[in-house]
User: Fold this.
Amino acid sequence: MVAASACALSLGTPYVPLYRLPGALLDADSTLAGVVVTELRVPRLMLALIAGLCLGSAGLVLQEALRNALAVPEMLGVSSGAALGVAAPLVLAVSIPAAVQPLLAIGGAALGGGLTLLAAGLGRSPSAVLLTGAAVAAALQAALLVLMVMADQFDLQLIYRYLLGSLSARTWDDVTGLWPWLLVALPALVLCVPVLSVLRLGDEDAEALGVRAQRARFAALAIAIVLIAPVTAVCGPVAWVGFLAPHLAKRLNPAADAVRWLPWSAAWGAVVVAVADVPARLALAPVETPVGAWTALLGVPVGVALLRSGPRKPTARRGAARTDAARPAPRGTGPEASPSAAKENR
Assistant:
């Protein structure tokens, strides 16, 4: 995170060496480097860290609530619903204040998540929720494609860049607009995480311990919506951060629970977005590429590699047990070795 932050603040046009960064931050309005660093690069870096923190935490909440390593915002209709809520007024030429955009994103995300839970029977089966969420996400993406067909050329470029997730031209106003939502989501997230460890035991065991699995899963989805929707309203759907960050956190400490995984998942999400934003800004300079394209390019291969290289000890033990069962018993240890067994056989 420190290395990505240093690259984000110093690299670019103009180039600001590391030893000049403190002076540029202090002389914010007196030099060109100070204006660029304080007004453009610092808010963009802060937004990348906050977006990664929210997406990494939401990914862990969804994976633990549904007991599935593939449960990510992109597969449950949450990200697609939030993007639809923000893109629809743009195409329909409806003037919306910037302060209302997070509300539209939350409404769209709630629509996608609610449709997923209703179609899956209010979350009775985690696998049903995941499969239904993929279908709802596909339907919402089809609605987005219809809007893109209706849009003119200028709006089409804006929607296309937004749907890939971009941190370009973000200012302090975008950063400060996220704090009210974080003040609501973070306390609820802290209260929800211990319940996720109980849900991991299964619905029957959770009910036996006094946790209503359906309500807890619905509450977890609501918290994930509050974490994802404001970030999507500002940055667009930054893809696959919620998939990669929890897997990196679990790889560091496989024997831990959701309480210990949460801060690591949030930190890894911030690292992933901050690292991906550096090539998004500099790889094809002076043209900027969407950060969501880089998170997908980096996140999906690494996440698949983490899944494939995971521990397989339970499978190996089951295979060894089957091998031992199929192996013939040595002489003198079977039932024929005892006289009473021989009489019974006769």
The two ends are 76 Å apart (CA to CA). Confidence is low (pLDDT under 50) at residues 312-326, 332-344. The first helix runs from residue 2 to 10. Residues 72 and 326 are 41 Å apart (CA to CA).
